């Protein structure tokens, strides 16, 4: 088979993966605490390494994408006031800890409220964890401090449990802005001196809508180019078969 078919096909698959990632990011541009998906590609020559050394042009023109990996960009999103006293945004490193039926999970989305029993919960109903377990605030006026301490009617009711995973968190997304540690990754508790929270605010998604739309157009055109190239290669192959058949 023509080497170009492998090159164009792998490029088209990579472009499709990138298109899906860009679309996913744009769909969550308004989701507080969302972290953008980024794709990483690995490319290698189709021909054996020795042949590529003999013909440097071959190594550049006869290559294929052999691996597409999705990674999360955990860079800081902008902090925006929300007007809700129970909302809280993280500045810098750290994750909130929430309890789920699958165990503890981690999130940057600090859109909190109280359930019917007075527990601090996420927008999806998971109980937010304090240093001593579930945080029950009752019905008084709650104030969250920059270090994560919570006072209800002036009385200390606990402190938000905050953990870190280093500069490059090895976390896997579970949906609803929740993350679980990848194998071998473990959370590190953060003390009050390591935490800087912004009460009454939320961390916006680290997705630029305008840049995302430009990237979406660019990737879409690139994918169309790959598909056009595939059709042209098919036409060339048909012509070659017909010409050989006539001879």
The value of Rg in angstroms is 25 Å
Number of self-contained structural domains: 2
**Helix content, binned percent:** 25-40%
Distance N terminus to C terminus?
21 Å
How many helical stretches? 4
Shape: elongated
Arithmetic mean pLDDT: 85
- SSE run: HEHHEEEEEEEEEEEEEEEEEEH
Structural class: alpha+beta
Instruction: Please give the largest β-sheet.
Output: 6 strands, antiparallel
Low-pLDDT runs of 5+ residues are: none
Keywords:
three-stranded antiparallel β-sheet, alpha+beta, six-stranded antiparallel β-sheet, 4 helices, 2 domains, 247 residues
Protein architecture, described:
- With 247 residues, the chain is of the alpha+beta class.
- It has two domains: 3-75 and 207-246, no CATH class; 79-203, no CATH class.
- The chain has helices spanning 3-27, 49-54, 56-61, 209-246, and strands at 37-45, 63-72, 79-81, 88-90, 95-100, 103-107, 113-114, 120-121, 127-130, 133-134, 142-144, 149-152, 155-159, 162-164, 171-175, 178-181, 188-189, 197-199, 201-203.
- The strands form seven sheets. Strands 5, 6, 9, 10, 14 and 17 form a six-stranded antiparallel sheet that branches. A three-stranded antiparallel sheet has the order 11-12-13, with no helix packed on it.
- A hairpin with a 2-residue loop joins strand 12 (149-152) and strand 13 (155-159).
- The mean pLDDT is 85.
């Amino acid at each position: 088979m023509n080497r170009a078919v492998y090159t164009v096909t792998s490029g088209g698959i990579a472009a499709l993966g990138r298109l899906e990632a860009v679309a996913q990011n744009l769909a969550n541009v308004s989701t507080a605490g969302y972290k953008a998906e980024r794709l990483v590609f690995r490319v290698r020559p189709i021909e054996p390494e020795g042949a590529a050394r003999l013909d440097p042009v071959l190594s550049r023109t006869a290559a294929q994408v052999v691996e597409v990996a999705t990674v999360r960009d955990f860079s800081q999103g902008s902090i925006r006031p929300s007007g809700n006293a129970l909302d809280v945004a993280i500045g810098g490193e750290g994750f909130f800890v929430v309890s789920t039926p699958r165990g503890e999970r981690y999130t940057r989305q600090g859109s909190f409220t109280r359930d019917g029993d007075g527990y601090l919960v996420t927008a999806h109903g998971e109980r937010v964890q304090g240093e001593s377990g579930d945080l029950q605030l009752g019905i008084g006026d709650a104030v969250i401090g920059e270090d994560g301490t919570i006072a209800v009617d002036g009385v200390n009711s606990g402190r938000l449990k905050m953990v870190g995973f280093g500069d490059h968190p090895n976390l896997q997304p579970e949906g609803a802005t929740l993350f679980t540690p990848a194998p071998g990754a473990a959370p590190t508790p953060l003390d009050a001196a390591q935490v800087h929270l912004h009460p009454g605010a939320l961390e916006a998604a680290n997705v630029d809508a305008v840049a995302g739309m430009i990237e979406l157009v660019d990737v879409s055109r690139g994918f169309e180019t790959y598909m056009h190239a595939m059709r042209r290669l098919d036409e060339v192959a048909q012509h070659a078969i017909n010409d050989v058949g006539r001879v």
